[in-house]
Amino acid sequence: MKFRLRDFAFYPPQIRSYRRHLQQAQYWSPEQRRADTQANLARLLHHAVTNVPYYRRTLAPYRDRFANMIERLDLSELPRLTKRQIREHGQELWADNHGAYGPSVIHTSGTTGSPTKFLVDRQSNITHFASIWSMLNWAGYRFGDRFADLSAGQRPGEPLYALDLRLNCLRLCSGRLSHETVPKLAERLARFQPVIFKAIPSSMYLYCRWLDECGVSPFQPSAILTCAETVHDHYRAKFQELFDCRLYDFYNQNERACLFSTCEEGRYHIHEDYAFVELIDDDTPGRAQVIATTTNNFVMPLIRYETNDLVEVGAGAGCPCGRTYATVDSVIGRIDDVVVTPNGNFHSGFEFVFERAENIRMTQIVQDQVDRIEVKLVPSPGFDKRADLRRLERQLRAWLGNEIAIDFSFHAALQPGRTGKIPFVISRPGRDLLRPAEA
After folding, report:
1. Which among 2, 115, 160, 287 is least surrounded, fewest beta carbons within 10 Å?
2. pTM of the entire structure?
């Protein structure tokens, strides 16, 4: 949840209106949902093939068959869109009339550290904010309630915790967990009394481990909310052991491609009004690839976009919560290690260092020992070895400090792991830190 208030401050009535719509739409009949999806796809496809240069070229041969595809809700005839194609074609994916949609620029490096720039428009912002708001309501949060965020984003020298009065949020620094700091964080949380405690799963797991080692009883929020990483079974067990509340998890991307979130029954729901999602069979039985079409972002539509994430499909049965969105059993999203530094701190989430590194196609961080990391780079033709490396090292040291050695190496490509994805971080010390405590 990286909200920039300037992206949402200009249309609160529209956000409230769309949230009211979502409160009803989550319980729609299958017929209502199908009709709404068909209408959204019809608007999006015809806009794209008319106004977006890339789609005028690639989708024009299929235009006469759009109506049949929409009727069947089957876009499998259309070509897929990859992150590499987005980086290569860039502004060709922008609508000719993109200025009319109030565009703003976002960057993402994803799970592979491949920096990519996207445009999003005002309707995408409205849909995103209202959908996240609605999802938070499932967890018992009401706008304006107190919440805590165990963030991986603080840099050295920033405070251990800070209160964001704009969002009524207590931000805690996950990279400084220790025997000395964890009791202070626990005490500050108890005084703040957040309704929701949000965290990256690995950060929350390590916080729980430190609570155990320090013998501290944690404050009990109404719910824990996790995002950005896969929630392993031993993570869930530890959260349940220490916190007497439900765990909610959600998955989406900066590029607004799709949104999955769990309800009070623990089932992952696909927010079908956020985007059109296809689940394409993977090589592993029971798993599917997530292919998404962004039906609410007309400034830079993503049609049949390969998110590079997988889900466990399961039976797909209806959920006891009563919501009629399609469901999956679990999301196999980002599964990254954390980097451990010589002073005992750990760091995750610093892939954002590479979001604006437009001269780098792909990045991977490898750590075999606590005093050194290797940063593997796949450079683009515009890469300036002297200037770009100096900038990257400066930004990395802002996160990791000066006690760790940083080696850079250059590669034509990076090898995918067992899941077919290229992990952003591979760290032996990090795996030791995150494995089950009893192992």
Report:
1. 2
2. 0.81
